[in-house]
Predict the structure.
Amino acid sequence: MAPLRHALSRMMRSLVMKFTVLCAIVLLAATVVMTSIGYISNTHDNRETAQAHAQLISQLFAANLAEEFVTRDARRMTLNLNSFVERGDVQGVYIADTLREVVVTAGQVDLLPGDRTGDALVHGALGSVDSRVEVQGDLIRVAHPIMHSGRLSGVVVVDVPTAAVSRAASDILQRQLLVGLVALVIFLPVVALVVRTSLGPIHKLTEAARLASSRKLDLRIDVRTGDELEVLANAFNRMFARLDASMKRIHRLAYVDMVTELPNRERFRKEVERVTRRAEDDGSAGAVLFLDLDRFKRVNDSLGLGEGDRLLEAVARRLRETARGWDLSQGDDGAEPSLVARLGGDEFTVLLPTLRDPADAARVARRIIDAVRRPFEISGHRVFLGVSVGVSVFPRDGGDPETLLRHADLAMAAAKRSGGNAFEFFEATMNQTAFERLVLEGELREAVRDDQLVVYYQPKISIKDGSIAGVEALVRWNHPTAGLLSPGTFIQAAEECGLIGDIGNWVLRHACEEMAGLYKRGLNIPVAVNVSAVQFEDEKFSDTVLDALRETGLPANALELELTESTAMRQPERVLEQIAPLRERGVSFAIDDFGTGHSSLSYLTRMPFDVFKIDQSFVRDMARDEHARIVVETILAMAKALKLQTVAEGVETSEQLAFLRDQGATLAQGYLFARPMPLTDLVRFAEGEAAASARARTA
Ligand code: C2E
Ligand code: MG
Ligand code: MG
């Protein structure tokens, strides 16, 4: 019952029904109005006809009965009058003389012969010698004077009923109403049909709007009615086209990486979510590969921004080809293809939705490494990149995008640490290492803030006379629970989390301050400070150094800055730019850990350095390793030719010292003379016997 009522109420509310009902009302109203007008005008016409008819009868009586009236032939008069009354034309009639005495009557008359009438009509007709008419309800009453031989001799009064007249009018009314009803019955279905057909396009529009609301926007409504509905349909089509374009644009902005046209992080996350959920249901496995390009930053800096983007595009293309190649080699047409995405910067990801064997992920990683290793051609330059790949396998290493990406990222970091161009699978211990690193970083921040860092100094001894030629400032961390920590435990972490700049600048200023203090006391000891690559690449580096010198009062020629070989060789032009203003003031520069890098000799000899510091590994291995000995000899010979000073690091034995002296080394630094020490110990060392014993050792 309810569905029927529902359908009925829907039908009643439909436009077709509304239009049909409206038409019916209009039609009915028109019929009623027309019929009423017809009825009123008919009644009016009929009444006039009836009056004329009544007057005619009265004239007829007056003319025909004049003779009989004068002769008072009552019998003939009655006969004559009765014939009219019987036909129904007349309801009643009487004749009176000029004294208003009734002479004869017929039909329904309230008077009898011999009565004197007070009828106003009779008065009127006798007075005016003309006929008088009066309408009394359903009766038309006419009084007409009777003339004989030109003289007024009486009056005839006729009552004519109007019933006949009004019957004719109501007959017409009925007929017209009937016609109206028939028209209604015939036309209404036609109206409904016409309305229904002309409103047909509205159904199309409704259906289109419904589809559009369910995101299907690439549709066209075909309405060719040539009326407003066609205009409306065209407006709809234009709106859908615009919406479709906007939706596509929004989708692109939200899910596509603009540089490479690869899916972006959000899209990748969604895909991983979908695939892992499916894997949960059907027990399948897959993998997430996290890729980070090696050396990209350096290449990008030297190429410029636009070219960097082109390089990323080229990498993206190669990754896509590799993934496609892998999919094809698997030969399963129905299988879901791999997905390559860019997370941002030089980070890419690959999703392998189905994996028959975890070793397959390793095969894909290998292919990717080989593909990225091949040189790229960017505007005439050959560019070499590498890539580190971390792999997490689901469901083993995680069941959601966040965990899988984090684990693949940790594995990637491990691959990167091993030197790049390598891949690693995620292992549970990586989480632990990452956690420790996180704690370390937190504590390091506190260390910088709470002054837990201290500077130790290690003397550099002149090989010729054993005097202190200078000191190297080496940072230590006075950890609240772990005690004194050497830089090996935290410098790398500081570099990775960006704290190295703060730490390095603090060491620089602190060393300058303390050494300036010694200068004031007459102890003139030059100090060498280590500078990290991050610190050195800061544009404001030379200003920072000059500020430190000015504010602490340390003479510029008492400061030496140590750059490692790799820092110095990273951006040679930049190095020259940074060094120049400092060298002008008298600051000297040393290449630290010399021999461990892979610098080109031609570059090195052109660089404005004052000191080579021979890495302690060569000094240590000299005694037993021919190769190490040759390296030391070569460096010393080269320094001599370039007129540079040399510092041999890590000198622990007299044999090492003897060999270095023979080869012409100028300075030595190592446990043989002194370990790194706090300032107070250094002061004692410089002033006291320790220095004398050092001299004795070199003697
Ligand atoms: P480095 O600049 O090559 O410093 C020399 C390192 O060799 C120091 O280690 C020193 O204690 C150690 N050493 C000196 N003589 C001997 C020896 O006879 N035998 C042995 N086995 N080792 C010796 P330390 O202090 O642990 O510093 C390690 C490295 O940490 C430094 O190597 C330097 O690269 C870095 N570093 C230290 N302080 C700073 C700093 O303030 N800033 C930056 N950026 N790096 C620093
Ligand atoms: Mg050093
Ligand atoms: Mg060194």
